Amino acid sequence: MSSPRITLKDLAKELQLSPSTISRAIAGHPAISESTKKKVRKKAEELGFAPNSIAAGFRKKRTHSIGVIVPKIDVHFHSLVISGIEDLAYREGYNITIFQSKDSIDREKEIAKILQNRLVEGIIVCLSNETKSYTHFKKLVKLGVPIIFYDRVPTDFQANKVVIDDFGSAFKATEHLIEQGCKRIGHIAGNQGTPIFKHRFEGYKAALKAHNIPYNPDLVLETQNLSYEEGAISARKLIALPQIPDGVFCSNDYTAISAVQVFQKAGFKVPEQIAVVGFSNYPISQVIQPNLTTVNDRAFQMGEAAAKLLIRQIEDEDNAIDFETITLKTDLVIRESSLRKK
């Protein structure tokens, strides 16, 4: 009976190093010190380690290229995610190619085909608003291409994911308005066909319930793209109600900023008459007067985490990594737009 083949994980356990470090040391990666390379090669020879022939063949065709698909590159959140991805990827010897789906499922499918032909070693994706089926990504997975989803992730497709706690973040933002004395709180919501915006809506409702404030559907306005224009339209509808809200939680900063401007133009004082909280902590949130209270969604860290997880999956020659979901913590950044109690 032949003895079991020594794997990268066996070597990693022996040397108390990560499998990816072992893999790079054997491949002669410049980021690994010469002393570590010698130590790894010596132990590999001692244990009789022989790299998997299929993996070895794959290494000869290494491109060190990662594809990134974002809905819109001009949205600050995605720009920061890309920056985090690029920063980590560069340090690990990978380059990235960026594509934007423009929130179109058809465009997303075309990009998936392009990336398949470009022989990228892995893909990082934020789904478009229109994506309800994942066939184009499942095909890539069957071809052995690792995929990491971030922010907008599939709900019924096993994959590695990096997200934030949208429900908890929205709960905290709404609860902050309640603590400031708001009792009639509106919500400018994102597309409810997109899970992250549905979770933010559910977090808003849960905070109301926890503080015995009745939910009023008239105070909730759904948008399709959370654009500046949609925020302004929603704000006008809120102040046209027989009884206006005294607080508003918005699913992003664009709608929150436009709402603040509409309220002020109509003669309402922010936050004295209407307190406002946004989501994402865009740079403009510190420029607008009053400065905007918002949720810091850790976009840069999300990009770093996605890249780190993908590279670990790419370099795991034994395909032994289980699927996991990384949930990043957020912070509520409290500024003037919500501070009714000084």
TrEMBL record:
One of its GO terms (molecular function) is DNA-binding transcription factor activity. The keyword Transcription regulation applies. SMART domains: HTH_LACI. Keywords: DNA-binding, Transcription, Transcription regulation. Residues 6-60 form the HTH lacI-type domain. This is LacI family transcriptional regulator. The lineage of its organism: Bacteria, Pseudomonadati, Bacteroidota, Flavobacteriia, Flavobacteriales.
